[in-house]
Design goal:
heterotetramer; A mainly alpha (56); B alpha/beta (315); C alpha/beta (272); D alpha/beta (357); A: 56 residues; mainly alpha; 2 helices; 41% helix; D: 357 residues; alpha/beta; 2 domains; seven-stranded mixed beta sheet; four-stranded antiparallel beta sheet; 13 helices; 35% helix; globular
């Protein structure tokens, strides 16, 4: 999944997978924090964001 | 390949005469050059309608999905691999099928042929390794290897992997071909270049879904693009929606695609839609040593869990 | 237009009647309709749906639609509140052929929630200004159970009227107080429909299964296929005969229908 | 007959002039194929095409067309009220459209412009467009325009007909709209004597090139149900994969779907081309579908084009013989064979066969 998205031009680092048990709340928080920071550092990827079509 | 047509007719007539099948699925001669039409014959007398040449690029496994009848089916290497996939996925039972195997030296890409001549092609003749196309004021003989469909050019499973009948001796399998050369080329690009590459690739897409409908794997009763509750993807020509369709179509073929090329053959706009599925085929091969449809004895990698499955994408 | 009132019609809450009031009075004037027509109800962001008009042109100041919760738009509608704003486009399609029906005996046969334009017709015909224009009026209306009948209060009042013959039926009920018929619509039709003659017209609207079994009953009673009027539905988008999807043969349900006589339907493919 | 002569140089100058007042569309090479595109400042139409892959219908009727916008923000006065999308009213000129594709516009107009309802999006764009046709000197083997109501030099639906003669063009104005376009472009040099004869002989030569034909004279006489119930539909549909190629490449297929798309607190209501080949096309909200089987959908497409349209408008078939569906159908379903099969169909003979077997 990750490979094809990156293959078609989604920058590496934007899609993350992690194995977190429902009991591992602290790990979840840590991972989310880390990824949020990393993705923020990449700046918004506008190319795969659908925008409202322009009216003339 | 010479003589395949006669042999197919002979086998079809025999199977129908003996009552072993209710119908035989093959190709009949098309009404325009380099086009053949998938066709059913249901009586021995109809067997003469069947033909075989280098323009049988569609995948006939597409026509047996969920069938209740006993079917004779003409199958080249890739078709046979999709029959295997169909059997594994319970879309048809092995004992419903009499597989008429066709060793294949590759199908011709008619867009490539057209690009090699000026003017409209009105007739085509072929020998074992060349085709001669003619039109108003020209006639040109082209080596088949020069105009093969791209999937055929890199195919290493030209002989049917399962069959009940064979129309000829097995052909030599290609060796030393790099099946994933085109994928590697894209892999070497930067994310932005990759993005633009695919943007350009699908820029002419009209969302007719011929790629999806020509694919034997695409048998869902309702495709995700047709769902309205929830609506997964918009229906307009918005490039994001077009890309989403192509990406998700490819994902749905992961670990199942035999690279039969029916999607590309069917595309009216000549889009190389295999560029999406090919990457997943490469990953499946590299991660699991898997090529779809080679055997009835193994479950596909996305169907099973093993403790040693590669997991370096998980952090 | 604004939603003025929402009434839950059936015990399973799958059917609600929406009473709409036009925001601009001139729009109400433009929306001059007759019984049997439909309109496209529009919820921006979700889409439009074709729905038969349940109110009668004789009822002024509002329009009513009874809507079954089934798809995206109807589910949203069921969640809307009184006072909210939405769009309407219409009236669309042909009404029942009121010119032909004038001076005739009318038998209305309806089942389930396909009773909406029939309600419109009944209100229209029994309006004091119109009642004299028609001879005998029979209404046969059935639902699965008493709780699934639409317009319960009105049904009761129609049953009490002496200028129309009301035959209400349900497929079955264990309610000891049920005072109307029990049985399927075709059986009730066989028993209570007036004899056929050139001056008697049947208007049928209901689920396919009801129509399938009612039609032979009317045949047996001798109804001419010209005198059997039906209202159809097909998937629609534009409602004005342009988008091409609701065709049955060369006719478009939205523009050439939705009302057809059985004679017309007999010459058309069964694609509805 | 008034004929204008345009040489290569003045063709370019004229088109540049037109671009000042018009949006100009023409055939351009894109990847390996030709398509009609809006011409930019530097673009010129490329007339070395036989025909474009997609039909030029999108110039008047784009695959995705915005119709309305709306706000879902309760603070807005016009919240939940649809506002019509303003249209590009600039005059358009289509240069180099083939006569078959040009005929498609008046043919489709019968659907979009009726006494009861006008589709303003289509009608206004159509009326703003001037069609400058390019006669086909070398029609393809899949062309059957001569039996579908026009021909390689056909004029219906055109405002001007261009005929390519070596490096030069003859232009025949066919309507006042066409005359005024020729003037705007500065194409006013009258062709000398003999031009008319030359065109006539070129047209005759082009007609000779047409090798395939359809007949539909009997179809009209049949009842709808006779053809609908004909026994061949299932067999004809065997190979169909129910993609939308035939309907999307067709210049005369007009069906559309309406969709709302919301982006946060605002959105658009748009229409997109739709295809009767898709099961979704007729699926009721209840789950019922009047056309569940693929042969029913294939039948719908051909019956619509060759019978329903014929009966409804009494003006020929809904097909201009461009041959796109023949060339591009992935499974080689050929409207020519199906049309002829329908035309030759004799329900009486068919009944006897059944009775005797």
């Amino acid at each position: 999944m990750k490979n094809l998205l990156e293959h078609t031009g989604i920058a590496p680092g934007r899609l993350h997978f992690s194995w977190i048990s429902s009991a591992e709340s602290t790990k979840f928080v840590d991972v989310v924090k880390k990824i949020t920071e990393e993705v923020k550092a990449l700046e918004p990827a506008l190319n795969y964001a659908k925008t409202e079509p322009k009216v003339n | 390949m010479t003589g395949y047509t006669e042999k197919i007719r002979e086998i079809a007539a025999r199977l129908l005469t003996e009552g072993k099948v209710d119908r035989v699925i093959g190709f009949r001669k098309g009404t325009v050059p380099m086009m053949n039409q998938p066709h059913y014959v249901t009586s021995p007398a109809m067997a003469v309608e069947l033909i075989w040449d280098s323009h049988c690029g569609l995948n006939l496994a597409n026509y047996v999905t969920d069938s209740k009848e006993r079917i004779g089916i003409v199958a080249k290497g890739c078709d046979s691999r999709n029959l295997v996939t169909h059997i594994i996925e319970n879309k048809i039972k092995r004992d419903q099928l009499v597989i008429i195997g066709v060793p294949c030296t590759g199908m011709v890409d008619r867009n490539k042929v057209c690009a090699r001549v000026e003017g409209e092609i009105t007739s085509v003749e072929e020998t074992d390794d060349a085709i001669t196309v003619s039109g108003n004021g020209f006639s040109k003989t082209i080596a088949k290897t020069d105009v093969l469909r791209e999937n055929c050019a890199v195919c290493t499973h030209r002989n049917p992997v399962i069959h009940d009948e064979m129309v000829g001796e097995p052909v030599a399998e290609q060796t030393g071909v790099d099946a994933y050369a085109s994928v590697k080329k894209v892999e070497a690009l930067s994310p932005e270049e990759k993005w633009n590459y695919f943007e350009d690739l699908i820029s002419t897409c009209i969302r007719c879904y011929a790629c999806r409908n020509a694919c034997p794997l695409c048998y869902c009763p309702t495709c995700f693009v047709d769902e309205s509750r929830p609506q997964w993807v918009g229906k307009s020509q918005d490039p994001i929606d077009v890309r989403t369709f192509h990406l998700l179509r490819a994902y749905h073929c992961a670990g199942r695609c035999t690279d039969c090329g029916a999607c590309e053959t069917a595309c009216p706009m000549g889009i190389k839609v295999r560029e999406f599925t090919k990457k997943l085929n490469k990953d499946c091969f590299e991660l699991y040593g898997w090529e779809a449809g080679l055997t009835l004895d193994k479950r596909p990698p996305l169907d099973v869990y093993k403790t040693d499955d590669p997991d370096d994408f998980i952090r | 237009m604004r939603i003025d009132q929402i009434i839950t019609e059936t015990e399973d809450k799958s059917l609600k009647t929406f009473k709409f009031v036009f925001i601009r009075p001139e729009d109400e004037e433009k929306f001059a309709y007759r019984a049997g027509q439909f309109a496209e109800l529009s919820v921006p962001g979700l889409g439009e749906i074709p729905i038969g008009i349940a109110s009668s042109p004789t009822e002024k100041g509002f329009v009513k639609f009874t809507i079954f919760k089934t798809g995206k738009v109807t589910s949203h509608l069921h969640a809307m509140r009184e006072g909210e704003i939405m769009g309407i486009r219409g009236p669309l399609g042909h009404p029942y052929p009121w010119e032909t029906l004038a001076g005739k005996n009318i038998v209305i046969i309806g089942g389930g929630f396909a009773f909406t334009t029939l309600r419109s017709s009944i209100i229209f015909m029994t309006d004091p200004a119109n009642r004299s224009k028609f001879k005998d009026i029979h209404v046969i209306y059935g639902a699965r159970s008493p709780g699934m009948l639409l317009y319960k209060e009105e049904l009761k009042s129609w049953a009490e009227r002496d200028d129309m013959n009301m035959h209400i039926t349900v497929d079955g009920t264990d309610d000891p107080d049920w005072k109307y018929h029990k049985g399927f619509v075709p059986a009730i039709t066989e028993k209570f429909a007036p004899p056929a003659d050139a001056d008697t017209y049947a208007i049928i609207c209901g689920p396919p299964i009801m129509i399938k079994f009612t039609q032979p009953v009317l045949d047996n009673l001798g109804y001419s296929h010209d005198n059997i009027i039906m209202s159809l539905e097909n998937r629609m988008k534009c409602g004005i005969g342009i988008c091409g999807r609701c065709n049955i043969g060369k006719d478009l349900v939205c523009k050439d229908g939705p009302v057809f006589t059985l004679s017309q339907l007999n010459a058309m493919p069964k694609e509805y | 007959m008034k004929l204008i002569k345009i040489d290569k140089k003045s063709l370019k100058e004229g088109i540049d002039k037109l671009k000042r007042t018009h949006s100009v569309f023409g055939p351009v090479r894109e990847k390996d194929e030709f398509e009609f595109k809006a011409l930019g400042d530097a673009d010129m139409p490329d007339f070395s095409f036989s025909n474009t892959r997609m039909s030029p219908k999108a110039i008047v009727y784009p695959q995705t067309q915005l119709m309305f916008t709306y706000s879902l923000n309760d603070a807005d006065d016009d919240c939940r009220i649809l506002k019509e999308v303003p249209m590009d009213e600039r005059p358009r000129a289509v240069i180099g459209i083939r006569p078959c594709d040009a005929l498609a516009f008046p043919l489709v107009r019968r659907n979009f412009d009726t006494p009861e309802y006008q589709d303003t999006f289509w009608v206004r764009t159509y009326e703003a467009t001037t069609f400058v046709g390019l006669a086909c000197n070398e029609p393809c083997a899949t062309c059957f325009c001569t039996s579908a109501g026009t021909g390689p030099f056909g004029k219906e639906g055109l405002d001007v007909l261009l005929v390519e003669d070596g490096d030069d063009f003859f232009a025949e104005p066919l309507t006042p709209k066409g005359e005024s376009l020729l003037e705007t472009a500065g194409w006013t040099t009258e062709a000398g004597g003999g031009a008319e004869e030359k065109i006539t002989s070129m047209a005759a030569a082009a007609n000779e090139h047409i090798t395939s034909a359809v007949s539909f004279d009997n179809i009209k006489k049949r009842e709808i149900l006779e053809l609908y119930d004909a026994p061949f539909w299932e067999e004809e549909a065997i190979s169909c994969i129910n993609c939308g190629t035939c309907t999307y490449v067709c210049p005369t297929c007009w069906c559309f779907d309406i969709q709302d798309e919301t982006f946060g607190k605002s959105g658009v209501r748009m229409r997109n081309w739709d295809s009767c080949m898709s099961p979704l096309f007729t699926l009721h909200a209840s789950g019922h579908n009047p056309r569940t089987k693929k042969h029913e959908r294939v039948r719908q497409r051909f019956m619509h084009k060759l019978k329903y349209y014929v009966d409804k408008y009494d003006n020929g078939i809904q097909c201009v013989g461009c041959g796109r569906c023949v060339r591009l159908c992935p499974v080689n379903i050929d409207i020519r064979s199906i049309c002829n099969k329908m035309n030759n169909f004799d329900p009486e003979a068919c009944k006897c066969e059944v009775a005797s077997s």
